[in-house]
């Protein structure tokens, strides 16, 4: 019997000054056949503004989406319940994120908390918000018994800057992930060229250390290797991926390697976005916006080092986000500026990708997939 997955695609549906288009409707829900790579639209949830990032709690059938709206002093995170078979979404509630331009959401491993990261949380950002921005980089929200989000119980702010005056005049945290043992939270901050590490207990954040990347890197997203021994950070401004050794006892990071996401000789403008690691830990993929490609790396099973093994066109323009299907047989790319979600079949033996189809979705920004039930 074919394995079906649920595919959620968040799209921009309100115009904003820094995105080229706003042609989406909200969150489009598809069923995805893992055997033949075909997606079927099931429904569209329109009652949400600019859902640019999605986190899914498969066990509790919950979806959490950030709303990124330019001009709002605070972003919003919305809790939704999804049908395990069709993916149909129903609204639960929402909370303000305690900072502006909400850019990322994730759940902890206990299923009790949602962490939301705000890209623009300083009052001086673009001279627009004045002193009314609440100023928090990351906030932690409890998931209540019915799946609703409670008010934030913990939050932190960052300080500092780096060498790029246009993009790094202040902190710009871009994502927060929880360590495999749920004891630490790692936050990639594009504005200060750092991964900041916090102790995490009962939803509370306590700063423990920070790891600095080369000046001008602009770290955007990060992922743990499946074995928990390595962390990989993709840097938006430098178009690189850093391999960092992770100390599970202290949460500290140590740089092992930095590699380019671009082919030799490419010198035009490029900004990286997302990275993903295959479930077997053998391959890493990174998205290039500008070169409009996916960079493919092999991960050494012994030391976690990266070897660049190729690039494939992303199937559209401006690959903002992408995700692997639950079985790892396919990879889907949200190409923000071409109304296209490109579908790639993935060869698990060598990591290579071959485009097999595409979906038309207005201004797609984020991909999330879980197995369908029933």
Report on this model:
The protein has 374 residues and is mostly beta strands. 0% of the residues lie in helices and 52% in strands. The protein contains no helices and 28 strands. Strands 3-2-1-28 form a four-stranded antiparallel sheet, with no helix packed on it. A four-stranded antiparallel sheet has the order 4-5-6-7, with no helix packed on it. A four-stranded antiparallel sheet has the order 8-9-10-11, with no helix packed on it. The protein is globular, with a radius of gyration of 19 Å. 51% of the residues are buried. The mean pLDDT is 95.
Short description:
The protein has 374 residues and is mainly beta. Helices cover 0% and strands 52% of the residues.
The SSE order reads EEEEEEEEEEEEEEEEEEEEEEEEEEEE
Under CATH, the topology can be stated as Methylamine Dehydrogenase, Chain H
Distance between the termini: 12 Å
Give the CATH class.
Answer: Mainly Beta
Based on CA atoms alone, the radius of gyration comes out at 19 Å
Shape: globular
Which class best fits the helix and strand makeup?
mainly beta
Helical proportion?
A: under 10%
CATH architectural grouping: 7 Propeller
Q: In the residues, how many domains can be counted?
A: 1
Strand order of the largest sheet: 3-2-1-28
β-sheet strand percentage: over 45%
Strand tally is: 28
Biggest beta sheet attributes: 4 strands, antiparallel
SS field, number of helical segments: 0
- The CATH homologous superfamily name equals YVTN repeat-like/Quinoprotein amine dehydrogenase
Query: Overall mean pLDDT score?
Result: 95
Which regions have little confidence, pLDDT < 50, spanning 5+ residues? none
């Amino acid at each position: 019997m074919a394995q079906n997955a649920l595919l959620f695609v968040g799209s921009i549906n309100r115009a904003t000054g820094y995105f080229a288009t706003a042609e989406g409707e909200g969150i489009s829900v598809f069923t995805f056949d893992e055997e033949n790579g075909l997606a079927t639209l099931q429904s569209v949830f329109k009652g949400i503004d600019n859902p640019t990032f999605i986190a899914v709690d498969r066990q509790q059938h919950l979806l959490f989406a950030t709303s990124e709206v330019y001009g709002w002093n605070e972003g919003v995170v919305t809790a939704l319940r999804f049908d395990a078979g069709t993916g149909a979404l129903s609204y639960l509630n929402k909370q303000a994120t305690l900072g502006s331009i909400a850019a990322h959401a994730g759940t902890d491993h206990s299923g009790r908390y949602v962490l939301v990261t705000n890209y623009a949380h300083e009052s001086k950002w673009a001279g627009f918000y004045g002193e009314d921005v609440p100023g928090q980089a990351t906030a932690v929200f409890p998931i209540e018994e019915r799946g609703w989000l409670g008010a934030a119980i913990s939050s932190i702010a960052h300080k500092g800057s780096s060498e790029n005056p246009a993009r790094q005049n202040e902190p710009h945290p871009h994502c927060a992930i929880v360590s495999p043992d749920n004891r630490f939270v790692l936050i990639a901050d594009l504005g200060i060229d750092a991964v900041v590490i916090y102790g995490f207990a009962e939803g509370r954040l306590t700063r423990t250390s920070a790891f600095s990347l080369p000046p001008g890197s602009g770290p955007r997203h990060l992922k743990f290797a499946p074995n928990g021994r390595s962390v990989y950070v993709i840097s938006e401004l430098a178009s690189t991926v850093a391999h960092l050794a992770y100390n599970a006892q202290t949460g500290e990071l140590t740089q092992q390697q930095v590699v380019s996401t671009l082919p030799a000789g490419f010198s035009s403008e490029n900004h990286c976005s997302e990275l993903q690691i295959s479930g077997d830990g053998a391959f890493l993929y990174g998205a290039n916006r500008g070169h409009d490609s996916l960079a493919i790396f092999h991960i050494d099973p012994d030391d976690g080092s990266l070897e660049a093994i190729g690039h494939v066109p992303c199937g559209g323009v401006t690959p903002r986000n992408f995700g692997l299907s639950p079985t790892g047989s396919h990879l889907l790319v949200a190409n923000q500026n071409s109304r296209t979600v490109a579908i790639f079949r993935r060869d698990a033996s060598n990591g290579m990708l071959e485009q097999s189809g595409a979906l038309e979705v207005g201004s797609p920004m984020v991909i999330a997939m879980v197995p369908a039930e029933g």
